[in-house]
Amino acid sequence: MPRNIIIDTDPGQDDAVAILLALASPDEIEVLGITAVAGNVPLPLTAKNARIVCELAGRTDVPVFAGCEAPIARKLVTAEHVHGRTGLDGPDLPDPTMSLQDTHAVDFIIDTLRAQPPGTVTLCPLGPLTNIATAFTRAPDIVSRVQEIVLMGGAYFEVGNITPAAEFNIYVDPEAADIVFGSGAPLVVMPLDVTHKALVTKARNDAFRALGTPVGIAVAQMTDFFERFDKEKYGSEGAPLHDPCVTAYLLRPDLFSGRHINVEIETTSDLTLGMTVADWWRVTDRAPNALFIGQLDAQGFFDLLTERLARL
User: Fold this and answer.
1) Mean pLDDT by 10-residue block, N- to C-terminus, for the chain (312 residues)?
2) Helices (DSSP H) in 152-201: which residue ranges?
3) Looking at 83, 196, 242, 260, which residue is catalytic?
4) Of 257, 261, 263, 306, which sees the most CB atoms within 10 A?
5) Are the beta carbons of 240 and 263 closer than 8 angstroms?
6) Does 196 participate in catalysis according to the annotation?
7) DSSP code of 294?
8) Which domains does the chain have, with CATH numbers?
9) Please, is 172 exposed, middle or buried when counting C-beta atoms within 10 Å of its C-beta (0-12, 13-18, 19+)?
10) Is this structure's pTM higher than 0.85?
């Protein structure tokens, strides 16, 4: 039985790869829908990019919904400096011909969780948590129906990538993150601590390009583009593929390891706004609320990614 998921996303080159990995794995994953949120770029672009990625994968059957265009309580902060003006800079991909669904993403999330049997839908947020938090606030009854939330966001040992203390997805909408982390839904968190171990080296990118398919070449061009920013910033041998860690975890959880700990979100400090305060060493008596991932078999991850992308 494939696992039913909703991908909530703000594409983003690495979001695109995460979506492609899910669409390439129909035996294990059934993508019920893709919900777009404002984040890396504003909502009109994230909603457009999600459809571009579906068309690249040849999956125009996957419904795409536009969601919240701004965080719950703050002005939107975007990341064109990383992802380029379109959010998907790098490859030259055609504008989508498939249309957006008329339903708002938040309504789709609520309706789907109410319609499917309890414990059979996994939420996979790859961007700010605005859509998920809004759905939970508007329809508290759906929280207990969620099978699991597997999200990319936060950091502890790798601290921040948008401020000294905060990771981008959580920083953009800390109030939303606070709602989701406090919801009681089962959480698996892919922080920078693990995603920074998923580095696209030249050999790994060459493997994508060598697939020779439109998908393989586009993925290579995407990682080429945002790699320039990350290599310069971190001095690393490649760029981290953050969001595909979420999809890879659904396919191969054995590639990952972490700890079940308490994670709280800072929402009031000017200095550490959006920080994920992870009790990694279990020094508080706060109840664990998340499996916080710390390690990854990077070669296994890239082998899986290359093998699956080759199917598209």
Assistant:
1) 98 97 98 98 98 98 98 97 94 97 99 98 98 98 98 96 97 98 98 95 94 97 83 80 97 98 98 98 98 98 97 96
2) 168-172, 174-181, 192-195
3) 242
4) 263
5) no
6) no
7) E
8) 3-309 (3.90.245.10)
9) buried
10) yes
